[in-house]
Amino acid sequence: MSELFDAVDALVASRATLPPPAERKRLRAAHGLTIDEVATALEVRRATVSGWENGKTEPRPPERDAYARLLDKLAELYPADAAAPVQDAAVPATFTTAPAPAEARTLSTGQASEAAAMNATENTQTPAPAPVAAAPAAAPRPARTTRPTSSTSRRPGAKKAAPARTPAGGADPRFENGPLAVVDVEDDGTVLAYCTGGLVLEVPAKSIPALVDWTLREAKLGQPKLAGPGKDADPLLVLTEAALERYGLPAALTEEERHAGRIPEGHKVIKQLARADWQLTKRGFGPWARIYRPAKGSERQCVQMCIPSWNALDTRHWDTAGQLPPAELARVLGVYASRVMTPRGSTAVTGLELMTALHPPTRASEPDADGKRHSEHNPGSLGKDAIDPMNWPPCEVPDGHPVLKDLPRFHVRGPGEKLFEEAYDWARPMTDAECTLRHLVGIDVNMAFAAGANGLNVGLGEATHVKNPVFDPKLPGSWLVDLSHVDLSRVKVGKEWVELDGSLLPSPFTPKGERPEGPAWYATPTVAYAVELGYEVRPIEAWVRYENGRYLDGWYQRLRDAYLATMADLGVDADLAPADFLAAMNGWKARDPELAIVVSAIKATVKGGLGKLRERPRGEGWRPGEPWRALSRPTWRPDIRAAVISRTRINLHRKIVKHAAFTSQYPVAILSDCVVYAADGTSPLDFLPYREGKPLPGGFKLGINPGLVKHEGTQTVLWGEEVRERFNAPELNLARYIKDGAVTDVDNGE
What pLDDT does 498 receive? Predict the structure, then answer.
């Protein structure tokens, strides 16, 4: 009988009436739940819950039953008729609230908004949670709140805000106000710190040393560590021009200071810091400054400062973030911090720091005989010591490296001396048949280099030199091998040999797509692909790393999740059908320009972090043959960078070959992760072989996930031929200009 009752209950639940999408979101936020927590509990993807809350999809059994039950319980706790904010006279006025501006725009921040909501609350002993206002389709921008130093607010018309309960699981009380704050000055001289979630703190500090001290003692800013043996993120203060003036700093750097990357050592603010026993790192007081005192035990005393008017937020990666008002800038940086990490400098620096934060070099050992723990190597990390510059394989290092100091001054290393794994920059003239088609359509691989890092086995320690080795595709390293015999006219695709027009394909072994002419150095993924295509390889020598692991997996996953969550907030979910995906991508940036900035920064974090693995000398009087500062980092790893780029290029070539074997269509141009095909229509669906909504297995697939493709741009074939004729360049790389069709100068490959 109980089985019959269960069946009846399931039948009723399958038709259960769910509240509107906005109410679902309100109930979740009222209980302090994140989308990720709900998704984990219901065993669905984050994007699925996001779709339920924005009304794009509806839950289906069996998840619908559990979701309805969750919402019913939450509705009992937070009835809609009690949603209006209330004032509790028994609660001290620890916050004050100013009315939200009438023109406030709809701004959803997904995971970050939940974290921000936690940060905007005070922990109290009030047992009953404060009601939460009913939300429209997406949560409006939070009203600005201030926490004055006295019991009364300086702001006219301000009123008390009811304290919210501590969310389930609770935020870290040390960092309850979020990871960062944007410091600005009001017209009346009041200094305010704009935090995430709309929270605004009043700052009593009257100097930079006092501001640092206030940040560490009272502001409750920072971010918990990302990995067990790691370190908490230091609080970040972003100083506006008004704040710079208030604290005696220049609004902009002089030309000399800009080149030096810092203000002079004799500046009065630096003297103030020195008198207060604060120190600066070697990079001094520049766009990204770190102010600290030596740590005492596990207690860190460090504050980081970001100064947008000194070009801390590079417009190539942060777009107009540096010109945003304080609250909006706090939101942009707060979303990035909650989903990636608190910025530690440029996006490139942050990308590199994220690797270390997820794989700290050391950990605490098991207790010894006396019960004491000691620092020891953390397995799976790169360790705390850099590789000795003289122990690097000569083929893996850039020109000017100390290990190459005995080479003649103007010697140019060829493929047999230098590992040259770079992204594609290849194009070819169009065939007569392609010229009869009407359009050129570009597709772009999402987060291509992040996808290339996913699951990649890389070296963790020093390399071992081996003569005449047997190739092992599971062993990361660099291999000297002749791949000139690989003929793209006949290759294996899966388990079958196929015939292709090799003249229309780029070689997978060189960035320019040229067929190699003899032995050359390649990373493991490149050599493994030659074997996959059905050809034998016989390495002459190799530098291999027996200590290895999937070091970048956690890094990829965090950046992937950050990207997908932000794109979902912009209306582009991961489970959209191809046509719906293309429609959702149309104008996605305009839906929320601030979140679009976050997407740009996430992408730049991927590319910049990988680029930092082979950082070159940056002035400082360096001469060829001498070591430069980056070589002292354990994360100076050009071999890892080469392996990721190799895998990314091979992944793209594999899809191109699959596509050619199935459709007899060949690319016209490739630039890094963008591929251009000739087609009769203007959409990728006009040449991608979808059957009943399903893509070609192993080929290109439309979607927002890393490794899938989106529409980059469409131009006419006549445009392509005219451009090439105008510059007398039959192999001009049209992928460089396919997005908007603007060609400003001759293509020089840079």
Answer: 96
